[in-house]
Amino acid sequence: MRKPLEGKTILLTGTKKTQSIVERIEELGGEAVLCPLIQTKEADNRDDEERLAACQNYDWLIFTSQNGVEFFWKKIKRIQFNSTQISCKIAAVGEKTAELLKRYGFNVHFMPSVYSADTFIKEFPSVSGSSPKCLFIRGQLAKDTLKKGLPFPIDEWTVYQTIENKESVKQLIETIESSKQPIIIFASPSAVDCFHKYVAPKVGWERAKIACIGHITKGAVEKYGAHVTYFPATYTMQSVIDAIAKGEEM
User: Fold this and answer.
1) H/E element, 154
2) Residues ≥6 apart with Cβ < 8 Å to 35
3) What is the DSSP secondary structure assignment for residue 197, as one 8-state letter?
4) Percent residues over pLDDT 70 in the chain
5) Does the reported pTM lie above 0.90?
6) Which of 70, 231, 77, 83 is nearest to 92 (CA)?
7) How many angstroms separate the CA atoms of 26 and 82, rounded?
């Protein structure tokens, strides 16, 4: 029996690649190729101890990505900070972000119904007569939607940086050119921008089908005039793989 991804090459361009996703693609008959176009690193850590201690002064910590959670936790472990001192409420955008927070022992008190900053702003719980004190744990490329949209000021802490990974460009170009049915999965606007800058001038956007995780990533692809073929309602890597396997094109 022919497998649903047989003959298809799936190119993974993000920073977080789990072996389970690669194994799932291979189980379905596809070929998984890791070509991370971006990489992340911890942001300046000179005042981490003071910043972590100050977290107890906030009503809410806000996380909008797994990277934010991961690097926040790395700072906690590196300076051996007692995370039980962080007693404020936690807000998370996205199921995977919430799952990672719970894995590290944090309770998630609010998650918007849709993986969207705009929805976060509409649904975030408000207390009549007072403004909650919030800290947004972010990367340096995070948009200022929350800062502009929430009806009260929020503080921000940049815990990680996203940078281009040019080492994957050559492999990505060669794989696209040699594959009959390449499908590229983008999970962030940063990876999209890197592809447009270094890969698209060589192979174009039309040579492969595009799959996206998240409406912001989808918008980044469409900004360059490219077509998104796969865009599942649930913003996870597994959902994208399932959509490709089932042929659920837009």
Assistant:
1) strand 154-164
2) 11, 12, 13, 168, 171, 172, 175
3) I
4) 98
5) no
6) 70
7) 41
